[in-house]
Design goal:
This protein is α/β, with parallel strands linked by helices. The chain folds into 2 domains: 209 residues, Alpha-Beta Complex (Quinone Oxidoreductase, Chain A, domain 1); 161 residues, NAD(P)-binding Rossmann-like Domain (Rossmann fold). The protein contains 13 helices and 17 strands. The strands form 4 sheets. Strands 3, 4, 5, 8, 9, 16 and 17 form a 7-stranded mixed sheet that branches. Strand 16, helix 13 and strand 17 form a beta-alpha-beta unit. The structure holds nicotinamide-adenine-dinucleotide and zinc ion (ZN). The site of nicotinamide-adenine-dinucleotide (NAD) has 34 residues, from helix 1, helix 5, helix 6, strand 11 and helix 9. Keywords: Metal-binding, NAD, Oxidoreductase, Zinc. It comes from Streptomyces mimosae. It holds the Pfam family ADH_zinc_N. One of its GO terms (molecular function) is oxidoreductase activity.
């Protein structure tokens, strides 16, 4: 079967790999209909994670069940499903508590599993024609049959629940003001989720005009940080107080783009922007391994965070991978009911064969390349 294979930094190719197959009785194999490229793939693509050549990327997957293992009870051949990017077992302490991003079974007890992601277990990615799904009864979210809402449902694998998770980590309540740093797909989903949760005003910070325009389209207030200090711009619009809640949807990316050794830019700006006793939700990734990085400490994701200021303001912070399963059923039902249309973020629908060009454009943040969906059937 064809799949997107990582070769070296800034190089992926679409090649033949061994077919996905049932390996354990509780597996299913999915024929992929839609799979997305994520900002998280770029950490590997840019060579910052020590990903081995030969890895098949792709953790945002949906499709139709093609083959069912003998131990699967709930899922049937022909079911249309979306796969939360987290691979969970369903029976460990963390999965039982809903913390499926941190499954203790699938990856030798280390910080959860995912498809096609370095250090997240042995699971191949779904930027391919087929995908093996382990613990399939637990890991498949079933969808209405047919082709309706394909692009909205595809975003249930990661970025819609991740954006929602950011608002949950920050504890966004109706009527509150929120700032979201990063207008990439994840930041836009966080802003959209904050508005769904009834936030009164949502500020979205970036410097890319096309992405800021999308933020404005959904009813958020765009803040261009290249035109002046973002914290000050937001304070000026909130009576000097800052926002009630704040979200980091940038992560490590900012430190690399700015070329500084340990700037922790976004977190420190958030600490300044959020009012005293507010809270931060951090879903931007702070990559813990950086073989090509500028310093030894950067390899461990160390950053100079203004802890004194954080303490002085009595702030709280939640971090981590999204526990997609905690939200994706409800978010699916909002899509079905016509109450949410996250696909406003999708800019490109391309055949799998065009993945190398798509990675190149998305990695460069070329204007208009917001979210790429790959469709093996095209
Ligand atoms: P992205 O890299 O396209 O988006 C990042 C955006 O941040 C870009 O638009 C960029 O212009 C902007 N940016 C850069 N520096 C900035 C700064 N200093 N201030 C404000 N904005 C700045 O990718 P994405 O797909 O939106 O992903 C964003 C982050 O979320 C990545 O780190 C990704 O790994 C992470 N992520 C986390 C989870 C999770 O479960 N926690 C899931 C998916 C993605
Ligand atoms: Zn993703």
């Amino acid at each position: 079967m064809k799949a997107v294979v990582y070769h070296e930094p800034y190089s992926v190719k679409v090649e033949d790999v061994p077919d996905a197959r049932i390996e354990d009785p509780n597996d299913v194999v999915i024929r992929i209909t839609t799979t997305a490229i994520c900002g998280s793939d770029l950490h590997m693509y840019e060579g910052r994670t020590g990903a081995e050549p030969g890895i098949v990327f792709g953790h945002e997957n949906m499709g139709v069940v093609e083959e069912v293992g003998p131990g699967v009870a709930r899922i049937r051949k022909g079911d249309r499903v979306v796969l939360p990017f987290n691979v969970g077992c369903g029976f460990c302490k963390n999965c039982l508590a809903g913390k499926t991003g941190f499954c203790l079974t699938v990856n030798q007890g280390f910080a959860g599993g995912a498809y096609g992601y370095v250090s997240m277990g042995p699971y191949r990615g779904g930027q391919a024609e087929y995908l093996r799904v382990p613990f399939a009864d637990f890991n498949c979210l079933t969808l209405p049959a047919g082709e309706q809402h394909e692009d909205d449902f595809a975003l249930l694998a990661d970025i819609f629940p991740t954006g929602y998770h950011a608002t949950e980590l920050a504890g966004v309540s109706p009527g509150e003001t929120v700032c979201v740093f990063g207008a990439g797909p994840v930041g836009l989903m966080a802003a959209y989720s904050a508005l769904l949760r009834g936030a009164s005003r949502v500020f979205v910070v970036d410097r890319q005009p096309d992405r800021l325009a999308l933020a404005e389209r959904i009813g958020a207030i765009p803040i261009d940080y290249s035109k002046g200090d973002a914290a000050q711009q937001i304070k000026d619009q909130t009576g000097g107080e800052g926002t009630d809640k704040g979200i980091d949807a940038v992560g490590y990316q900012a430190t690399v783009q700015e070329g500084e050794e340990q700037p922790a830019i976004v977190l420190n700006t958030l600490i300044e922007t959020v009012r005293a006793t507010g809270a931060l939700g951090v879903v931007g990734l702070y990559v813990p391994a950086d073989p090509g990085g500028p310093s030894e400490s950067a390899k461990h994701g160390e950053l100079l965070v203004k802890m004194g200021r954080f303490f002085e303001k009595g702030l709280r912070m939640g971090t981590g991978q999204a526990n997609v399963k905690q939200y994706n059923r409800q978010l699916r039902d909002m899509i079905i009911a016509g109450r949410a249309t996250p696909s406003f973020v999708v800019s490109h629908r391309l055949p799998l064969a065009e993945a190398p060009e798509a990675y190149d454009h998305f990695d460069k943040r070329d204007p208009g390349w917001t979210k790429v969906l790959l469709k093996p059937d095209l």
